[in-house]
# Entry
Amino acid sequence: MALKASPESQEALLTLQASDTRLQQLAHQAKKLPETARLAELGQQAEDLRQQLLVEMGAVEDARLELSRVEADVAVVEARMARDAERLAGSSSVKDVAGLEHEIASLRKRRDDLEEIQLGVMERLEGLEATAEETGALLDSVRETITDVERERDASLSALAQERSSAEAHRASVAATIPEDLLALYERQRSRYGIGASHLRGGVTSASGVRLTESDMASIRAAAPDDVVMCPDSEAILVRTAESGL
# Structure
């Protein structure tokens, strides 16, 4: 036996379908928030900067170790120079004096070379630290931006959640007015084809946007007002109103 329902109940399906369409739109908006894409981009930037900073800090540590080694070498040379100077002051041997003076001169040349190397390392270290500091500042800035965008995303999601809650409540109130068998048919068709009810307006079905053939229109005109008719194109319930052009 063909399903029957009052024209008013069938027309209520259009309001129900509008609610379901809006809920789908809200779900899509929640998944496709511009803030979400922006956060993905910022997250990648932050990770790239973090990796860059790790490399730069590694170079800084290497330079600091190198500077420590050079400073240690300078200290060793200066200690030997001080020891030789002390021995020179207490020596009366011409041969020993000559040997000590030669060694002190060699040590002084070695110290001068090391100090030149030390200065170069210090200058390089200063540049490396400045670069790492700049990268760290950029990373901090990106992280601050991420926090701001996360706040914007959460606000957008909250607004969508509120609208979704309102839409769900409205849908429930509309669904409560529709006979159970008609509602069950609507839900079944919607789960199968994505749309449960289609408005026939001017001979065009809203679900597919297709104008029905004269043969289809003739069959629809022959149906009683309380007959539940299916759309031949979308398989949704075809809702007839004064706009249907019958």
About this structure: The longest strand covers residues 197-201.
